[in-house]
Design brief:
The protein is α/β, with parallel strands linked by helices. The chain contains 7 helices and 7 strands.
């Protein structure tokens, strides 16, 4: 068994339910279009990875989606807060015998396969790895040992998440990857001209 597990957290692509901050500037339909492009880009990024890939949807399992044939299994996120949902997914992974677990979201246009490979490489000699986001959160988190504190007592969706998570590792060794920009609002979208231009096609 390959002892590496990649968790992918995704929202179901439903009109007016995704990218709400972005939708405030460009409207619900265009925001949904952008989110679908982000899903597609993430699916393409993980395609060549030779490891177990578990997709976790926010509400229900989609069939015939962009992940079809590209992930090992599809699941539904369990928990009230983002922290609880991630904690449950990690806990399940460790209980199933995986030794290195990395989670990513689907809000990045510039995440690459090498970023994920770097994360797993870091876990060979470190307790954790984190991909910091420019908004004070993170786009990737990886663990090589169970560390429940990283999921608890965080103000999810705020600029303190990265700092508080780093503190939760306490004296454990953790590696920081390069900063990347989540696409949450129109300013973020403008940072990626190719993606912005797709709105005009």
């Amino acid at each position: 068994m390959n002892k590496k597990l990649l968790l992918i957290f995704a929202k179901n692509p439903v009109l007016s339910k995704v990218k709400t901050r972005l939708a405030a500037s460009i409207g619900d339909e265009k925001a949904l279009f952008i989110y679908k492009k982000l899903l597609q880009k993430t699916a393409e990024t993980i395609e060549g990875l030779d490891l177990h890939k578990s997709l976790y949807y926010s509400e229900y399992i989609e069939e015939g989606d962009v992940w079809e044939g590209n992930v090992s299994d599809k699941n539904i996120q369990v928990g009230n807060t983002l922290g609880e949902k991630m904690e449950n997914a990690f806990k399940r992974g460790f209980s199933e015998g995986f030794l290195k677990i990395v989670i990513i979201g689907t809000d990045l246009w510039d995440i690459e396969m090498k970023d994920i490979n770097l994360a797993f490489k870091a876990l060979e000699s470190n307790a954790g790895v984190i991909g910091p986001a420019t908004d004070g959160g993170y786009y990737l988190l990886g663990l090589s040992e169970w560390t429940t504190e990283v999921f608890e007592n965080k103000k999810w969706g705020t600029s303190s998440v990265l700092k508080d998570t780093m503190q939760s590792f306490k004296n454990k060794k953790v590696v920081k990857l390069d900063y990347k920009n989540d696409i949450d609002n129109y300013t973020d979208l403008c940072s990626f001209p190719k993606l912005l231009k797709l709105l005009d096609t």
